[in-house]
Design a protein that fits this description.
The complex is a heterodimer of chains A (about 250) and B (about 200).
Chain A (H helix, E strand, L loop, with lengths): L4 H8 L5 H13 L1 H35 L1 H9 L4 H24 L7 H12 L12 H10 L3 H14 L4 H14 L2 H11 L9 H12 L4 H14 L5 H8 L4
Helix pairs in contact in A: 2-3, 6-11, 7-8, 8-9, 9-10, 10-11, 11-12, 12-13
Chain B lengths: L9 H11 L2 H14 L3 H8 L4 H20 L9 H22 L19 H12 L3 H8 L4 H11 L4 H7 L5 H21 L1
Classes of the chains: A mainly alpha (about 250), B mainly alpha (about 200).
Chain lengths: ~250, ~200
């Protein structure tokens, strides 16, 4: 078997030019022996990473055993138990008072738009990119992070044209459309994303988020219905969804 | 440098700067980061009703993930380090709950952004993933112990995200080219050991 280790290493290190990358990827599809070599490279790195994690955890365990605050708290916990119950009772009482107050006297409401903006600013302004690698997806992600949403959207749509099953590109195309204020298009992409059975799929949550941003008649009610669906079915975005449902809007 | 991250306290900046370096500096930064929020373990026990072991694992995974994100530049510094680390800790807790309730962890291996497969084009990804899934992990990890201390250390540095230049400094090699040649030879050796088993 021919030795390709350096060639493979250069690919993953991002040292190949776009043409060479394309050839490399073609070879993976056509040459089984080559694909086996690539798979070994990937598996070796994965195994090494797992070893690293195990080593780090061992080291953390040593650090934790030397951590005074941690051991003090662990030892004193049973002695304080009665206080914990009293504190819990006091907290419940304060909670009930506060809840009643907010229920009867507090009339301020939050706008769905504000909630959505806050979420978008915190979570969607930057998408993860892979350092040192520049394929079309990474290029599009970089454009997105540089806030060039129109160009990024064009790139994601080109990826979708080439590979209609690429759900990641569909998700990012939806995110671009959302950032551009093109809510109908964003909804369409997130609905398409929702058709995939994935381990982690934020499609429903993103549809609710988009409706909260669009804020047309009926959107608020539909957004709340979708958020309830996210919470009830333990879907992606459950935490913010539950938080938002507890607010008045 | 993290001068443009206004929410960071000076000592948080110091931790991040140390982690972004390599060798002893990085290890010191990792230790500071772990110790700084180690009380989250107690929070995990009291707030989330976890056993010490589960809370410790959760916190360790959080710190490992935070270190990885700091190194690959995903930490934007839009909040204090504590808020950010707590967010990761909380997300990991939600993942843990989900795994416990659905047992999904036994079916799917999640793909991290730093995973080499993340870089592979979608068409080839499936082929490679299927081949990777056939790996005998026990044998591979056993063979890692047999490649020799020097090789193992070099490969561990590589998996930890060190560049060949940084490995050259850490392991006192003359140039990064020598490191690359040695590292690839070590990988070859590992491959032969694995396939000969």
């Amino acid at each position: 078997m021919e030795n390709h280790t350096e060639y493979i290493d250069d690919y993953f290190a991002g040292n190949l030019n776009p043409e060479e990358r394309k050839n490399f990827e073609k070879q993976m599809e056509l040459d089984k022996n080559f694909a086996v070599e690539v798979a070994f490279y990937v598996a070796a790195k994965q195994a090494l990473k797992e070893e690293l994690v195990d080593e780090k955890k061992e080291w953390f365990r040593e650090l934790a055993s030397q951590n005074v605050t941690l051991s003090e708290k662990t030892e004193s916990a049973p002695v304080r138990r009665i206080w914990v119950y009293r504190l819990a009772a006091a907290a419940v009482f304060v909670g009930i008072v506060f809840f009643s107050w907010s229920l009867f006297f507090q009339s301020s409401t939050t706008s769905p738009n504000e909630l959505a903006d806050k979420y978008i600013n915190t979570n969607l302004e930057n998408l993860g990119v892979t350092m040192g690698v520049l394929d079309s997806m990474q290029e599009a992600l970089q454009l997105y992070n540089a806030k060039q949403y129109t160009k990024a959207l064009q790139n994601f749509e080109q990826i979708i044209q080439r590979d209609t099953s690429n759900y990641t590109a569909k998700q990012h195309a939806g995110e671009c459309s959302l950032m551009l204020g093109n809510y109908d298009k964003a909804l369409s992409y997130f609905q398409q994303l929702g058709t995939y059975t994935l381990y982690s799929n934020p499609a429903i949550f993103y549809q609710a988020l988009t409706l909260m941003k669009r804020n047309q008649p009926g959107d608020k009610e539909e957004a709340r219905r979708l958020l309830k669906q996210v919470v009830d079915n333990d879907l992606d975005g459950k935490e913010p969804a539950r938080d938002w449902l507890n607010k008045k809007w | 440098m993290n001068l443009f991250k206004p929410f960071l306290l000076p000592d948080e900046r110091e931790i991040i700067d140390s982690i972004e370096k390599n060798g002893a500096e990085r290890k010191k930064g990792e230790e500071c980061l772990f110790n700084r929020y180690a009380y989250f373990i107690k929070e995990g026990i009291h707030k989330f009703s976890l056993s010490y072991e589960d809370a410790f694992d959760l916190y360790s995974d959080t710190i490992i993930s935070a270190i990885e994100k700091i190194i690959n530049g995903s930490f934007q510094g839009r909040s204090s380090l504590k808020t950010w680390v707590y967010q990761i800790f909380h997300n990991k807790y939600v993942d843990l709950l989900r795994k416990k309730s659905t047992n999904k962890s036994s079916i799917h291996r999640t793909l991290s952004i730093s995973d080499p497969l993340f870089q592979v084009a979608d068409n080839s990804k499936t082929i490679i993933q299927q081949l990777v899934d056939k790996t005998d992990w026990t044998v591979l990890k056993q063979k890692l112990k047999e490649v020799g201390d020097n090789c193992r250390q070099m490969l561990m540095f590589w998996a930890d995200g060190y560049s060949d230049k940084e490995i050259a400094v850490a392991m006192e090699y003359k140039t990064s080219d020598v490191v690359k040649t040695t590292r690839l030879r070590c990988l070859e050796k590992l491959k032969q050991l694995y396939h000969s088993s």
